[in-house]
Amino acid sequence: MTAAGTVSLRREGAVAVVTLSNAGRLNAMTRAMWRELREVFTGLDDAGLRCLVIRGEGGAFCAGGDISEYPSFRFEESSLREFHENEVWAALQALLDCPIPLVAQIEGACMGAGIEIASCCDIRIAGATAKFGAPIAKLGFPMAPREAALVHGAIGDVLARDMLLAAGVHGAQRLYDAGFLLQVLPDNEVATAVQVHADRIAALAPQAARLHKRTFAALKAGATQNLLATAYDYADSAEHREGIAAFLAKRTPNF
């Protein structure tokens, strides 16, 4: 049986929306969806694009991996390695490498693969009833090393250990308290709040956003020294000049 599921991109001006869709399975990720997710990001035409929203279809973010596929590849080391390193991690790395701000719109289930995808985003906004976890210990296997490091870095040691060692599932407030979420809102307000936040990002200087993302990546890698040679190359850029000029003239900048 071939699992269904798609990853789609819809662009509206300076903001684009990436939607995970696997009907009837809370948008659980199939192997094809992982490949599509990577292709969306590696093939992205980012000209004029200032923000990306990642969401799930139908009131769920992503419930994890599509387990119906697992017997076909998980029991051989080579195919298991291929899945995690060349499909899952390749997609997650494409998200991490994206120079454009990523906002996660989290509703309902955010489990396993879902929390990995959300961990790649810059800003995460969730509904009050959203649930977070990675209870794969119930399935008899661990989270792959690079995926575990990603989630551990995003949610912190205490929650990561509970999710992976005790199959702990936590509510949005707990993830907010841990610093993983920017906002927790009533479920029916999440989509609007995400759109407002994405539009706010899109109205700001895109060059500054990309440079900030480069700095954040260097901080994570412990390589900020590598940025110093080019850190001030933006000095004579049009956006830099426009931002300062607009402030002095008491007008809204036109980026």
UniProtKB/TrEMBL annotation:
Entry's Gene Ontology BP terms: fatty acid beta-oxidation
InterPro entries: ClpP/crotonase-like_dom_sf (IPR029045), Enoyl-CoA_hyd/isom_CS (IPR018376), Enoyl-CoA_hydra/iso (IPR001753), Enoyl-CoA_hydra_C (IPR014748)
Keyword Lyase set for record: yes
Keyword Lyase: yes
Protein name: Enoyl-CoA hydratase/carnithine racemase
GO MF term set: lyase activity
Alphabetic keyword roster: Lyase
SUPFAM superfamilies: ClpP/crotonase
Family designation: Belongs to the enoyl-CoA hydratase/isomerase family.
